Amino acid sequence: MKKFDVKSLVAGIIIGTMGITTVYAATGIKSAALSNTKITLNGESLPLSKSLISVTMDNEQNESLYIPANELFEILGYSVNYDGANNTVNLILDNKRSQFL
Fold it and tell me: I need a surface site. Which of 35, 37, 68, 85 has the fewest CB within 10 A?
């Protein structure tokens, strides 16, 4: 059995969440603002260079926090490259390449 990989799990959750939340974006944004919320991973604060964005959708009371994907993947050890000509994000971890359109 393959060893459990936390980085892959977190990346999968984030990518899945990004896909699901775009459906909700169609209903309308009630408010969006920069957030000074701190993120910790295993009890250690993540060194974010950009602010999180707090978004509240129409007909919802709870807010969602968004982190720039490139910054999160870099913290998790990925090399992140954007190919503007092909509108593709390339992620490289341990010489293994993943591609997202």
Answer: 85
- Closest by CA to 22, choosing from 51, 61, 64, is 64
Same domain, 30 and 62: yes
User: pTM for this one?
Assistant: 0.55
Q: How far is CA 35 from CA 30, 64, 65, 68, in A?
A: 16, 11, 8, 12
pLDDT in tens, 21-66: 555 545 688 888 888 888 888 898 888 888 888 899 888 888 888 8
| 63, 75: one domain | no
Strand, helix or coil for residue 59 = coil
Tokens 């707090």 locate to 54
Using the 8-state DSSP alphabet, how is residue 8 labeled?
H
Q: Which residue has the tokens 């807010």?
A: 63
Query: How large is the C-alpha radius of gyration of the chain?
Result: 15
